[in-house]
């Protein structure tokens, strides 16, 4: 379909596709098996200025928007979603600084992220806080000109690899979510440690690690916004990030469809390629229909955000939910088209199926996001009690 991308966006899409096929595809299987963080590929992305896309020009970026970022994530995910998450997680960790940072904070941290010299990460999730962002227990206690952080964050993408972290902690536990605040933390700060690296079903090359804070002192100037703004900041951040998850899902599904089509044309059964059988054709057709619909929704929501809209909670959740459900269905069907070999790790679709599952879980589970969509739907029409 014609999505009316501008010339720069078309160039970015071609560039990332070429880079993914040339640099990522040859090592995709190895990265999945070794679970090593793809630093070499991150450097390749930095060399062609892809980390500059989501940074404003005044801080060393190219000033691209949500759609530009989605295009990069989609093309990387088409080949390896784990690599895409490693890239996209840096944008996630950067959004709070972009939206709430002071000019001094932006000048200090954004140029290093734009150059790709430093990765970022966003630290919200805890044992008691996942889709329920209000369940955090990590505390930040004021002590003179510093805050002292204590607590543990779980399942943090880019954990241990990133240099810059946006951390959500309670500055006033008596206020619940309204007592949460956000801090910029740097790797190497005394009292800031990394726990175990998780062994995951999919996106295995992406680093997912615990962050541990033990009497970790952070200066007052590292507070993002004001005290008590942490929950609002978190909601704003995940709203902006959800179309990116949708783009990840679209990319995974596209890669699975292309693999299934190619295999169906070469696999001979009963004297004919299986692509000649109507049952297989219908599988492929349904996959293609759903991918196009998901892509159209993701791009439309990304453009809505880029237009300057301030209220896109419902739309962002829709893009993430729909595209991730599509990715799961498409990858399951791709394995079915491959048959027995699709279940084997020598073929790419079993990895794609494993990778697709996380898109239904992170940045809010699809079940919780359906609640969010319904509440927004009712609120906008004045029907919410």
Would you kindly provide a written description of the structure presented here, covering whatever features stand out?
The protein has 385 residues and is α+β, with helices and mostly antiparallel strands. The chain has three domains: 7-114, Orthogonal Bundle (Butyryl-Coa Dehydrogenase, subunit A, domain 1); 120-228, Butyryl-CoA Dehydrogenase, subunit A, domain 2 (Beta Barrel); 231-380, Butyryl-CoA Dehydrogenase, subunit A, domain 3, CATH 1.20.140.10. Helices cover 52% and strands 15% of the residues. It has eleven helices and ten strands. A hairpin with a 2-residue loop joins strand 9 (268-269) and strand 10. The two termini are 41 Å apart.
What labels describe this entry?
single chain, Butyryl-Coa Dehydrogenase, subunit A, domain 1, four-stranded mixed β-sheet, four-stranded antiparallel β-sheet, Butyryl-CoA Dehydrogenase, subunit A, domain 2, Butyryl-CoA Dehydrogenase, subunit A, domain 3, alpha+beta, about 375 residues
Distance linking N and C termini = 41 Å
Mean pLDDT: 96
- In order across it, which strands form the biggest sheet? 1-4-5-8
How would you name the CATH homologous superfamily of the largest domain? Butyryl-CoA Dehydrogenase, subunit A, domain 3
* Oligomer designation: single chain
Number of helical segments with 4 or more residues: 11
Major β-sheet annotation? 4 strands, mixed
Strand content bin: 15-25%
As residue ranges, the low-confidence spans are none
Order of helices and strands: HHHHHHEEEEEEEEHEEHHHH
Using DSSP, what is the number of strands?
A: 10
Give the helix level as a range of percent: 40-55%
CA radius of gyration is 21 Å
Give the structural class. Answer: alpha+beta
Q: Give the CATH class of the largest domain.
A: Mainly Alpha
Count of domains: 3
């Amino acid at each position: 379909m014609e999505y009316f991308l501008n010339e720069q966006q078309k160039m970015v899409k071609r560039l990332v596709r070429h880079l993914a096929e040339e640099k990522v595809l040859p090592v995709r299987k190895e990265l999945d098996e070794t679970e090593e963080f793809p630093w070499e590929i991150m450097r390749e992305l930095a060399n062609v200025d892809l980390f500059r896309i989501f940074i404003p020009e005044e801080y060393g970026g190219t000033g691209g928007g949500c759609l530009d970022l989605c295009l990069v994530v989609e093309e990387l995910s088409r080949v390896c979603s784990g690599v895409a998450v490693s890239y996209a997680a840096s944008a996630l960790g950067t959004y709070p600084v972009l939206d709430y940072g002071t000019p001094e904070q932006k000048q200090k941290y954004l140029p290093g992220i734009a150059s790709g010299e430093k990765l970022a990460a966003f630290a919200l999730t805890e044992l008691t806080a996942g889709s329920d962002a209000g369940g955090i227990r990590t505390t930040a206690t004021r002590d003179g000109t510093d805050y002292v952080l204590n607590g543990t964050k779980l399942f943090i993408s880019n954990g241990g690899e990133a240099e810059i972290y946006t951390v959500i902690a309670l500055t006033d536990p008596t206020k619940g979510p309204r007592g949460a605040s956000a801090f910029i933390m740097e790797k190497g700060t005394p009292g800031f440690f990394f726990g175990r690296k998780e062994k995951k079903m999919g996106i295995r090359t992406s680093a997912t690690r615990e962050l541990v804070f033990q009497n970790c002192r952070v200066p007052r100037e590292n507070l993002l916004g004001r005290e008590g703004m942490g929950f609002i900041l978190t909601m704003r951040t995940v709203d902006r990030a959800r179309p990116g998850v949708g783009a990840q899902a679209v990319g995974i599904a596209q890669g699975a469809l292309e693999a299934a089509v190619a295999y169906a044309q070469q696999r001979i059964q009963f004297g004919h390629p299986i692509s000649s059988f109507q049952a297989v054709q219908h599988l492929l057709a349904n996959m293609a229909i759903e991918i196009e619909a998901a892509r159209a929704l993701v791009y439309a929501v990304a453009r809505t955000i880029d237009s300057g809209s301030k209220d896109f909670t419902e739309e962002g959740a829709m893009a993430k939910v729909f595209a991730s459900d599509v990715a799961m269905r498409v990858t399951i069907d791709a394995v079915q088209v491959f048959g027995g070999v699709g279940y084997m790790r020598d073929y790419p679709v079993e990895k794609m199926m494993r990778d697709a599952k996380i898109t239904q879980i992170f940045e809010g589970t699809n079940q919780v996001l359906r609640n969010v969509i319904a509440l927004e739907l009712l609120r906008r029409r004045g029907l919410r009690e």
